[in-house]
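Researcher: Good morning. I'm working through a list of sequences from a screen, and I'd like to move beyond sequence-only analysis. For each chain I'm collecting a predicted structure so we can compare shapes side by side. This is the next one on the list. No need for commentary yet; just the structure.
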Amino acid sequence: MTPEQLLAQRRQQDTFFKQHLQSPLTPEQKAAFTGLRYYDPNPTLDLTVTVERFTDEQIVAIQTTTGDTRQHRRYGTFTFKVDDEEAKLTIFEADYGFFLPFVDAGAATETYGAGRYLEPEALGGNRFHLDFNRAYNPYCAYSPDWSCPITPAENRLKVHIRAGEKMPEGDWVIKA
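Model: Good morning. Structure tokens for this chain:
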């Protein structure tokens, strides 16, 4: 995705949050909404990775922000570099497809503390496209009324992923 396409997608996301009936925001939040915050496009974090599949793809219960659990299959891991530091993440599989929750070193200061999400695109041959520029906050970042999977410990990184959506700020954000 080109930087121009990414920026256009972000404008569409802001319009969705401000106007759409299925927006995660309340009417009061929509009235005060000033837009989501993002890192500048970072082409070095638009990756094609090879996933090492688990031989025992365990079903795990991932706890949510409201105390429920959701079932996901541990699919495999991949490694990549960020600013010359190696990082490793686990991809999960759910009924709706692949799921990559992660927390980076900027959590609770630059990015949402409970983590951000991506939906990896399977390319075949255990290869996936992951564009961290498209990393987004779960809906629970905007209101505690939403239930979102909490990033498992194995996907808590010691590196900053300076791409994608930042922590929401503004009068429109409901504080937990």
